[in-house]
Design goal:
- The chain is α+β, with helices and mostly antiparallel strands.
- The chain is built from 2 helices and 12 strands.
- Strands 5-6-12-7-8-9-10-11 form an 8-stranded antiparallel sheet, with helices on one face.
- It is globular and about 65 Å long.
- It has 2 domains: 28 residues; 166 residues, endopeptidase fold (from Nostoc punctiforme), CATH 3.90.1720.10.
- The longest helix is centred in the N-terminal third of the chain and has 24 residues.
């Protein structure tokens, strides 16, 4: 009993220490390889910018005609900018956090009117397609969730491209595609669904 109490105490101290470290490094740039605003990848000619700390914001981005694209260089800003530049598409509402792009009241395959896009739940009978927006739910270290764009799909995985993946995060990530009764993306990644142009 004594040993298990000590072990629990050590685990609590480690967890609290990790939270404290995260709190202080989330707003700084610990990666000297890049500077905020530097182009680090692109998809179909649309740049992915480095954001330094995940909570950093470098102003607002608007199109020349006044359409709100997002907060520089957050994940939402990249997805809105990609849809605006590549597809010439403006969402009816381009505001909000990443996890708010998914409307839990919309059924699989129906229209998400706030975004003007078809919405698919995870799991879904519809496999993600290149160009879809993949929505990740919020979690203890990411209270706003995350959104990325599908850059490649095959029978084994879905590759996403993302902005603001963290100071040492990768712009591209492969998520295993599981095929059971429905097609869905690996649950441990907290993917709640994806959005698609009609």
């Amino acid at each position: 009993m004594k040993n298990s109490t000590k072990l629990i105490g050590v685990i609590v101290i480690i967890a609290l220490s990790a939270c404290v470290v995260y709190y202080f490094v989330k707003d700084v740039n610990p990666n000297p390889r890049y500077k905020a605003g530097q182009v680090i990848d692109s998809l179909n000619g649309v740049a992915v910018y480095y954001n330094a700390g995940v909570n950093e914001v470098y102003g607002e981005n608007f199109s020349e005609d006044g359409y709100f694209i997002g907060l520089k260089y957050q994940c939402v800003e990249f997805c809105n900018r990609y849809y605006y530049q590549y597809y010439h598409f403006k969402m009816p509402d381009s505001h909000g956090n990443a996890n708010e792009f998914f409307d839990k009241s919309v059924k699989d395959g129906e229209l998400n009117a706030r975004r003007g896009l078809l919405q698919f739940t995870n799991p879904s009978k519809s496999k993600p397609q290149a160009g879809d927006l993949v929505i990740f739910d919020k979690h203890p270290l990411g209270k706003y969730g995350h959104v990325a764009i599908v850059s490649e799909v095959n029978d084994k995985y879905v590759e996403i491209i993302q902005q603001n993946a963290g100071p040492f995060g990768r712009t591209r990530l492969k998520i295993p595609l599981v095929n059971k009764s429905h097609l869905f993306l690996e649950k441990k990644r907290k993917v709640i669904g994806w959005l698609r142009l009609k």
